[in-house]
From TrEMBL:
This is Heme iron utilization protein. Residues 13-148 form the CREG-like beta-barrel domain. It comes from the Bacteria. SUPFAM superfamilies: FMN-binding split barrel. It comes from Telmatospirillum siberiense. It holds the Pfam family CREG_beta-barrel. GO terms for cellular component: cytoplasm. InterPro entries: CREG_beta-barrel, Haem_oxidase_HugZ-like_sf, Split_barrel_FMN-bd. Coiled coil: none annotated.
Length: 251
């Protein structure tokens, strides 16, 4: 790609981050222990509030042993589902380092996105890792490729505020709307139905960040992206309500 402005570079970096948010898995490439050979494996993935990838890895796994020897990694996020020719679809490769991450928020974000992982996350051989992204290679299709610098969704203070408002936000959006029975309909249920085409009962707010929120129903989690990143955690509820109103009026 040539002639792109800094604005388009930032736009591509945001698009790459949105692809990360949407994905719940990735291909992890590590340096095979003792052989200096590349090794690729499938991993479950979530993101922190600022967009940092989070992994839950067992030290018994080949990729974790490799990381403990050499933390350099690459993550491939595949956005080509639905394309008859996958070469025409978007994907992004992240280059960086895997770092042990013991924060409770990292664990909470991952388990909210992958509820089934609660069965083994507490085992002694499992630990959470974050991927400190150094650069990204975005491919948007044939002839559309570019190296990009990572663009976090927010700073640490803003991330803390998004985390702090989550309990109150859950109370506001998970309760019944109108006079229906509990769980019959709620703001999340309306958004899931109208925006994502998903139906279910007892929707929960699994997580929220400047780029969107994760809606959980049973064992499944679905990503609802905002139309543009939110600068403040105080904007979340109004944004969700506006989304529901706008979609309902358009239908």
């Amino acid at each position: 790609m040539s002639g792109d402005s800094e604005t388009s570079s930032a736009g591509l970096a945001v698009a790459a981050r949105m692809m990360l948010r949407q994905a719940d898995r990735a291909t992890l490439a590590t340096v095979l222990t003792g052989e200096a050979r590349p090794y690729a494996s499938l991993v479950g993935m979530a993101t922190d509030i600022d967009g940092t990838p989070i992994l839950l890895l067992s030290r018994l796994a080949e990729h974790t042993r490799a990381i403990l020897e050499d933390p350099r990694v690459s993550l491939l996020i595949d956005g080509t589902a639905g394309f008859a020719n996958p070469q025409q679809g978007p994907r992004v490769s992240l280059v960086g380092r895997a770092v042990p991450a013991g924060s409770a928020r990292f664990a909470g974000r991952f388990l909210a996105r992958h509820p089934a992982a609660e069965l083994y996350a507490g085992f002694g051989d499992f630990a959470f890792y974050r991927i400190d992204i150094e650069r990204m290679h975005w491919v948007g299709g044939f002839g559309r490729a570019r190296w990009l610098a990572p663009l976090p969704a927010c700073d640490a203070g803003t991330a803390d505020r998004f985390e702090a408002v989550l309990p109150a936000l859950r109370s506001a959006v998970e309760g019944p709307v109108g006079e229906g029975p509990a769980g019959a309909d709620c703001l999340l249920g309306r958004l899931a139905r109208l925006r994502l085409g998903r139906r279910g009962r007892r929707w929960r707010l699994a997580g929220v960040d400047p780029d969107g929120c994760d809606l959980g129903c049973g064992k499944k989690v679905h990503r609802l992206a905002f139309e543009s990143p939110l600068p403040s955690a105080e904007d979340i509820l109004a944004t969700l309500m506006d989304l529901a109103r706008n979609i309902q009026h358009a239908s």
